[in-house]
Amino acid sequence: MFRLVEQLLQSNSDLGMILQTLFSLSFIIYLFYAQRIQAMSMLRQVEGTLRKVKALRDKGRSVSIETINEVGRPENDPTKDVDRFMEHFLIPPVDLDPAGIVGKLGQLLNVRENTFEDEVRAMAPHASDSEVNNLENLLEASLALNVYYKVIRHFYLLGKKTMNIYVIMQIHMILPMIVREIEAYSAALQAFKNGMPIGDSVGPLVAAKMMHGHEYEEVAREMVAAEVPYAGRTLIVTKAKGPGGSVGKPGDAIENLINKRAEGKKVNAVIMVDAAGKLEGEETGGVAEGVGAAIGGIGVEKYKIEEAVKAHNIPLYAVAIKQDISHVVAPMVEELFKATDRAVEVVKNLVEEKTKEGDVVIVAGIGNTVGIGQ
């Protein structure tokens, strides 16, 4: 009996020593290779995301080719043209001397827009104007997916090549936010293919609801405006011309409308309505009021608007419809559609509170007007 107990104790002692030795070895290995192990773990996660992004990029490419063949009915296979489009880039002007940089940037953007339109018309010769705009947006979404894929692939391959954890961490830490944007652009493919309103269309939708039933005229490139009487005031409601996907030139439109009335009855206020990014915890479709030029983009149109209102001392108000980054280019959800009705009421309240009878107010619906007419 005692001999059996001794044997058990001896075996337990040997097992404990083995376990202790293994633990010590593991600790030593981890001490020297912890960073490499962590880098390999992060690389595997980035690699999984990279495969997912590649699938979305390839989907964007195939949807673009399919839609061009379906809508544009080209004589030749547009695959090579689509691949060339997806590699397009823009070199910004030098900013060492910032004076005049907005004009240079605006000129480059005009060239870019004209180039894109010409290329789409060449790829889809039988497409209508609205279809050309939608195809252009579809190809730009595919281009964005391609850029995301190449940037993630760059950091993945560079990290794998150098095994430098700081290189790998740069992409790994921001990957969750990037994936949300990528998924939104992927959802945008269907919206632009079928001409469906997207989250960024809330501004033009507000303007369309206010100008519905009134005569409109073109006031700038791809921008229309209509005079709408309300509460003794004259509202000049402007938006990008639809229903093709376009943001137009709201800066030129507002500047032209202000200058047109400079010699007569001047504009007394400008109210801009646009989508705005929401913080986590805020409600999708929340409507907020503020002041300033409610417009995103690279800044050229915003500059024009600010210069125009400053020159004539016109107060500038803003109405924002809040949404997540995943909603901006994805098909419009019900919460955002309902928010446009509340935004119309907010605009009307601003008109009544900030102006008096007989005043002229410009109301600008800012954003992509895909799927939204006048």
Task: Determine the fraction of residues in helical runs and give it as a percent range.
Answer: 55-70%
Structural class: alpha/beta
Q: Write the CATH fold name of the largest domain.
A: Rossmann fold
Note the beta-strand portion.
5-15%
**Ranges with pLDDT <50 over ≥5 residues?**
none
N- to C-terminal separation? 98 Å
Query: Mind telling me the CATH class of the largest domain?
Result: Alpha Beta
CATH superfamily of the largest domain: Peptidyl-tRNA hydrolase
* Oligomer description: single chain
| Shape type | globular
Radius of gyration based on Cα positions? 28 Å
- Beta strands, count: 7
Number of domains: 2
How would you spell out the order of helices and strands?
Answer: HHHHHHEEEHEEHEHE
Largest sheet: 7 strands, mixed
- Using the 3D structure, state the CATH architecture of the largest domain: 3-Layer(aba) Sandwich
Average pLDDT score: 89
Biggest sheet strand line-up: 1-2-3-7-4-6-5
Give the count of helical stretches.
Answer: 9
Walk me through this protein's architecture.
The chain contains 9 helices and 7 strands; from the N terminus they run H-H-H-H-H-H-E-E-E-H-E-E-H-E-H-E. A hairpin with a 2-residue loop joins strand 1 and strand 2 (223-230). Helices cover 59% and strands 13% of the residues. The radius of gyration is 28 Å and the shape is globular. The protein has 2 domains: 34-194; 199-365, 3-Layer(aba) Sandwich (Rossmann fold). The protein has helices spanning 2-72, 79-85, 101-123, 129-162, 165-194, 202-211, 250-260, 300-311, 334-354; strands at residues 216-220, 223-230, 233-240, 269-277, 287-291, 316-323, 360-365. The model has no long low-confidence stretch (mean pLDDT 89). The longest helix is centred in the first third of the chain and has 71 residues, at 2-72. The chain is of the alpha/beta class. The chain has a 7-stranded mixed beta sheet.
